[in-house]
Design a protein that fits this description.
five-stranded mixed sheet, 14 helices, binds pyridoxal-5'-phosphate, 381 residues, alpha/beta
């Protein structure tokens, strides 16, 4: 382009090489849209022969993320979304519409509880919350309009490992769909799609990304169902940005390494804290899978401990209202994730001022333990 002026050159300087110089890492396709040489090429997009048109409709980086998680979960197809919440919303709206009903577990992530309890009403979708520990309670809640059973594979913050097979069988009996949030377990520990769950959703903000530097969601399922989920993501504008998708894919490359270490560390911390006289309860699931039991440990401090002092005495362990990063962090369910729950619901679940959720990282396990024990001992009245 030597025969054009500076003005024209300035806007047309981008690299024309489509081979990307055989870059080992996937390039970031930080583009809002894709260009076409002629109208035949444009037409070929609508015939399904050219993959990309406009980033909200699809982008190589978000596709790479959806496909990566689908492969790890053993599902046919996957899609990225702007957050865990938008992936959950897109999944729900793909199976439930105005007039439909959902039966959901009563021990859910606070944001999901609020979406199901408050927002879905405005779409004309009603939700009944029951304890999923009890099959009869779920059966009793199912009605003619029920379209979906919704839960988390490991619940938050009390880490009950859900009986997925029971849910799948129940859903088959009533011909309704199942959707499971697999954020806490990750596909390293559990793969609910392989057990027959229809849609599996992740807050990739947590373990999939793994480095606390991205907000993202992913949803996987069958080819058919994922077509409607993708349409929802497009229509709701819930697409993920290419850069965030790229960061999440980068995180996933070390998922197995991180989860192996974090699961082992968490098992060690849970076992040790069970021996501690000032820890009244340790919530940590058992026998979730042969790969481990996840990397979250929830504890209830004894009444001799001052909770404010505990949180202020944690040294390099930060207070973070999230989980799943490589650094150990603590969160306060009563003050953050479960803050919006009505007091009766908090009490029923067992959430009180002394409940602390610990997201175990990849540090030296003895040093994590020492830091926690120092904080507990400092907090004694
Ligand atoms: C964080 C979280 C969500 C919400 O995900 P965002 O990425 O924050 O939108 C949903 N479910 C679980 C279990 C979570 O931990």
């Amino acid at each position: 382009m030597r025969d054009v002026s500076f003005d024209t050159l300035a806007v047309h300087q981008s690299i024309k090489n489509k081979n990307h110089f055989t870059s080992k890492a996937t390039p970031i396709y930080q583009t809002s849209s894709f260009s076409f040489k002629n109208l035949y090429e444009l037409e070929s997009y609508f015939e399904g022969e050219t993959p990309y048109l406009y980033t909200r409709y699809g982008n190589p980086n978000t596709d790479e993320l959806g496909a990566a998680v689908a492969a790890l979960e053993g599902a046919d197809a996957g899609a990225a979304a702007s957050s865990g919440m938008s992936a959950i919303l897109a999944g729900i709206l793909a199976v439930a519409k105005n007039g439909d009903h959902i039966v959901a577990c009563d021990d859910l992530y606070g944001g999901t509880y609020h979406l199901l309890d408050a927002e879905l009403k405005n779409f004309g979708i009603n939700v009944t919350f029951v304890s999923f520990a009890n099959e009869q309670e779920i059966r009793d809640a199912i009605c003619d309009h029920t379209k979906l059973l919704y839960t988390e594979s490991i619940t938050n913050p009390f880490l009950r490992a859900e009986n997925i097979q029971m849910l799948v069988n129940l859903a088959k009996e009533f011909n309704i769909a199942t959707m499971v949030d697999n954020t806490f377990a990750t596909p390293y520990v559990l793969q609910p799609y392989k057990d027959g769950v229809d849609l599996v959703v992740h807050s990739a903000t947590k373990y999939l990304g793994g480095h606390s530097d991205v907000s993202a969601g992913v949803i996987v399922g069958s080819e058919d169902l994922m077509q409607s989920v993708c349409q929802k993501i497009i229509s709701l504008g819930a697409n993920l940005s290419p850069f965030e998708a790229w960061l999440t894919c980068r995180g996933i490359k070390t998922l197995a390494l991180r989860m192996e270490k974090q699961n082992k560390n968490a098992q060690f911390i849970a076992d040790e804290l069970k021996q501690n006289a000032y820890v009244q309860k340790v919530y940590f699931p058992e026998k979730v899978s042969k790969e481990g039991n996840g990397a979250i440990v929830t504890i209830e401090l004894s009444s001799q401990c001052d909770v404010h002092t505990f949180f202020a005495s944690l040294g390099w362990i930060k207070i973070v209202p999230s989980l799943g990063g490589v650094e150990t962090s603590v969160s306060y369910p009563l003050g953050t994730s479960h803050r919006t729950l009505p007091p009766e619901a908090q009490e029923k679940l067992g959430i009180n001022a002394r409940v602390i959720r610990i997201s175990i990282g990849i540090e030296n396990p003895k040093e994590i333990l020492n830091q926690l024990i120092t904080a507990i001992e400092t907090s004694l009245n």
